[in-house]
Amino acid sequence: MSDKDERADRLAAQLRANLHRRKAQARAAAQAEPRGDPPAGEDPADDGADADRR
């Protein structure tokens, strides 16, 4: 094999590994989202019941 072919094969293998890693990260992030945590900046104790008094 020529040097260019070996380099192309190594690059292709690295790109496949990167794709697998990114897909795994995306799956993990998708599973973590529906936990029911309030969005950042909101008080979890504030249920909005007294919103009309403000």
How would you sum up this structure, described in words?
By secondary structure, the protein is an all-alpha fold. The protein is built from 1 helix and no strands.
Write the layout of secondary structure elements.
Elements: H1 3-32
How large is the radius of gyration? 23 Å
Return the average pLDDT rounded to an integer: 82
| Strand percentage | under 5%
Structural class determined from secondary elements: mainly alpha
Q: What series of H and E elements makes up the topology?
A: H
Number of strands: 0
Flag low-confidence runs.
Answer: none
Q: Main sheet, how many strands, which sense, barrel?
A: none
The DSSP helix count reads 1
What is the 3D shape?
rod-shaped
Kindly report how far apart the N and C termini lie.
Answer: 75 Å
- Tell me the helix content: 55-70%
Summarize the structure.
The protein has 54 residues and is mainly alpha-helical. The protein has one helix spanning 3-32.
Features of the shown structure:
mainly alpha; 54 residues; 56% helix; single chain; rod-shaped
